[in-house]
Amino acid sequence: MIFSATGQAGPGSEVSRQALMLTVGAGVMVLATMIDYRAWWRAAPWLYAMLLGLLVAVLLVGTAAKGAQRWIDLGPLGAFQPSEPAKLLLILVLARVLAGEEEDDEEPPGARFFKGMVLIGLPMLLIMLQPDLGTAIATASVGMAMMYVAGIPRAWLLGVVAMALSVFPFVLHDYQRERLMVFLNPEADPTGSGWNILQSRIAIGSGGVWGKGLFQGTQNQLDFVPEHHTDFIFTVLAEEMGLVGSVVLLMLLAGLVYSAFRTAQATRSRYGSYLAAGIGTLFAVHILVNLGMTVGLCPVVGIPLPFLSYGGSAAITTLAGLGILNSLWLRRPRAPD
Question: Distance between CA atoms of 203 and 248, rounded to whole angstroms?
Answer without folding.
Answer: 18
